[in-house]
Design goal:
Elements: E1 3-7, H1 12-23, E2 27-32, H2 35-48, E3 53-57, H3 66-77, E4 82-85, H4 100-128, E5 132-138, H5 149-169, E6 175-181, H6 201-213, E7 218-221, H7 226-234, H8 237-240
Parallel strand pairs: 1-2, 1-4, 2-3, 4-5, 5-6, 6-7
Helix pairs in contact: 1-6, 4-5
The protein binds NADP nicotinamide-adenine-dinucleotide phosphate.
Length: 245
């Protein structure tokens, strides 16, 4: 059975992806700070296939603990074929806010935690000559958004970091997939300034699984927002600045 770690699996997209991967036959380690939620999901999935899902309490800010945790989990689930970094926070979209603590939390959770995890996962997969890394980014990382500067910077940083890891690892047989999510109906959406046709977490998870299965590099989810992403990326700055985005 293939083995996966999902960091940020206690709710929303990560929990839906855990269900999808379990459906596809994976053994999974679920990580996040809220152990009761993770344990509840693990119990639910273990009722379908015993002993296939384990929950681990983990705060990605505690980077010093990541090397040992990664080794422990890989030993317990018997290796690692797929690593998904889904942990993320977004504070309310508000152009009037200047809050260093909130900004640093977003950068630490959305970007720096991914760096700390991938420094463990990447060499492991590189020496195995196989494996897949998936980072959950956002269409908000394609441009600097005035209401969420640190969030969009964290996701832009994640996209660029994943591209660099792809360039480093593809020659060693490791696939790196960047998911640029459109809005998804999760708790995080309460902090958006407006909600436009959000996808369900189940649909997002199905499309992320499709990107994993096809070893895609960069994928907008849902795919119909790829054109919007392309237009936004290429809009001249003097126009983008006038939009209320
Ligand atoms: N929903 C959207 O519209 C949308 C759009 C674009 C991108 N995204 C991205 O999708 C990903 C999943 O978000 P979601 O929408 O599913 O929201 P969510 O339900 O709030 O899930 C966020 C996940 O991140 C984990 N997390 C947050 N801080 C953490 C920390 N310090 N340490 C470990 N885990 C942490 C949470 O677990 P604990 O609280 O248990 O720690 C939770 O499992 C995020 O990266 C988000 O930026 C979402």
């Amino acid at each position: 059975m293939p083995r996966a770690i999902i960091v940020g699996a206690s709710s929303g997209v990560g929990a839906a992806l855990a269900r999808e991967l379990h459906n596809q036959g994976y053994v999974i380690a679920l990580l996040g700070r809220r152990l009761p939620e993770l344990q509840h999901l693990a119990n639910e999935l273990n009722q379908l296939r015993r002993g296939t899902v384990a929950a681990y309490a983990h705060n990605v800010h505690v980077t010093a603990g990541i090397p040992e945790l990664c080794r422990t989990i890989c030993a317990q689930i018997g290796g690692l074929d797929l690593f998904v970094y889904c942990a993320g926070v977004m504070y309310p979209n508000n152009p009037a806010t200047h809050d260093t603590d909130a900004d640093l939390e977003m950068l630490q959770t959305n970007l720096l935690g991914a760096v700390a995890w991938l420094n463990e996962v990447a060499p492991r997969m590189q020496s195995a000559g196989s494996g897949q890394i998936v980072g959950i980014g956002s269409i908000a990382g394609d441009r600097g958004r005035r209401g969420i500067p640190a969030y969009s910077a964290s996701k832009a940083g994640l996209h660029t970091y994943l591209e660099a890891m792809r360039n480093r690892l593809s020659r060693h047989g490791v696939t790196v997939t960047t998911i640029k999510l459109w809005q998804v109906q999760t708790a995080m959406l309460a902090n958006a300034d407006r909600v436009i046709q959000p996808a369900s977490p189940q649909l997002a998870a199905r499309l992320i699984w499709r990107a994993i299965r096809h070893k895609r590099q960069v994928v907008y989810v849902p795919g119909r927002w790829a054109a919007a992403g392309l237009v936004l990326q290429h809009l001249p700055s003097f126009i983008f600045r006038r939009l209320s985005l």
